[in-house]
Amino acid sequence: RNLSRIQQRNGVIITTYQMLINNWQQLSSLNGQEFVWDYVILDEAHKIKTSSTKSAICARAVPARNRILLTGTP
User: Fold this and answer.
1) CB-based contacts of 72: which residues, under 8 Å, 6+ apart?
2) How confident is the model at residue 4 (pLDDT cuts 50, 70, 90)?
3) Burial letters for 16-34: b for 16+ Cβ neighbours within 10 Å, e otherwise?
4) pLDDT tens-digit map of 45-63
5) pLDDT of residue 45
6) What is the band of 1 on the pLDDT scale with cuts at 50, 70, 90?
7) Whole-Å CA distances, 37 to 1, 16, 17, 24, 63
């Protein structure tokens, strides 16, 4: 319910990779229609370095016009 309000108001959601794994489907739709985020910003990008991990797969599954990956790991 709160997620729908955020999507309708063009808000921001901050979540963890585990929550992304558990909720990527809810993040990908609004009222049964595909929802495309303007930006998906992912911190600790080294956690999705391996494309076959659940985190990486779910991060790619969330529709977005732009993706920004952040990391402090060299």
Assistant:
1) none
2) confident
3) ebeebeeebeebbeeeeee
4) 999 999 999 999 999 999 9
5) 93
6) low
7) 17, 17, 17, 12, 6
Q: Could you tell me the two tokens for 16?
A: 């963890």
Which one-letter DSSP state was computed for residue 46? G
Predicted confidence at residue 14, as pLDDT, reads: 83
Question: What residues does 30 pair with on adjacent strands?
Answer: 33
Burial of 10 (0-12, 13-18, 19+ CB in 10 A): exposed
Rg value, the chain, Cα? 12
Question: How far is 48 from 41, CA to CA, in rounded Å?
Answer: 12
